[in-house]
Amino acid sequence: MMYVWIDALTNYITSLGYGRGDESLFKKFWPADCHVVGKEITRFHAIYWPAFMMSVGLPCPKKIYANGWWVVEGEKMSKSLGNVITPETLLNTYGSDGSRYALMSLLPFGNDGNFVHENAINRINGDLANGIGNLAQRSLSMIAKNCDAKIPEKGDFTADDTDLLNKAYALPQLCEVHIDDIHVHKYLETVWGVIADANAYIDTQAPWKLKKEDPTRMETVLYVLAEVIRCTAIMAQPIVPTGANKILDQLTIPMDARGFDSVTEQGALTSGTSIPAPQGVFPRLDIVKEEAAA
Is the full-model pTM beyond 0.85? Predict the structure, then answer.
């Protein structure tokens, strides 16, 4: 006889090849940097599991994080209520990026969360379609139309330019703290705060007016916008990888320059670089249609 939790918990390491000859995956991924579990099984993972590991001389997970329960429209998911949300339902309704963004932004880790379809659609439309998607589409379309589809020349930066760029370059350091604390929602709030600032900046600077009044200034403003889009798209990759990488493709950013260590002034865009015709990345969702599908 074997106690069920010994059998169940050891699957974490036996699935990586521990004790089965080829332990390359085990050596690569263990010990886990962060082991996320449901709050109802915290005792088994925070007491029993470390004890089992120590008894055979294996390292314990570096961190164990107990997450709360997710309910739907205030109700526990159950087959009798017919409100079970499967991954397939999420993907078919919101897409991969939309599902990831809605879950990570609306249901903070560590707490119980209430998933409401209308809130998910509003968040996707507000932050993805109207936020980073609209920023990229507006900015890159103006560059294509007014700058011969090339990254604009930058003139002297104003205080507003420098302030926005510095906020973008500070993102890796600010977000590192949130990731260490498993506060993914705060990570997203930080990145999308800069996106909101950039959308406010484009409205204030009005590059469409500068085209006639001050073409040199127009190019500088569009350069700043493109650079902030580069930085925020890089930071958005962990949550919305498909859309973020499409934006980076439109800026012709090489794959080896898409890491957080590239979110610096030294990694900035090069003026004169040709870019392809901009394409929309995050379409808006129809709330009636998507709620019916869900």
Answer: yes
Q: Indicate the number of domains in the chain.
A: 2
Asked whether the CA dihedral 141, 143, 146, 150 is positive or negative, the reply is negative
Q: pLDDT, tens digit, for every residue of 32-44?
A: 999 999 899 999 9
Arithmetic mean of pLDDT, 265-280? 96
Say if residue 141 is in the same domain as residue 229.
Answer: yes
Q: Is the Cβ–Cβ distance between 65 and 41 less than 8 Å?
A: no
| 25 and 137 part of one domain | no
Q: Pick from 145, 157, 150, 140: which is nearest to 220 by CA?
A: 157
Q: Is the pLDDT of residue 196 over 90?
A: yes
- Other CB atoms within 10 Å distance of the CB of residue 159: 7
Residue 178 exposure: Cα atoms within 13 Å on the Cβ side? 19
Which helix H or strand E contains 140, and what residues bound it? helix 134-146
Q: What is the spatial distance between Cα 182 and Cα 65, in angstroms, rounded to a whole number?
A: 8
The answer to whether residue 263 sits within a structural domain is yes
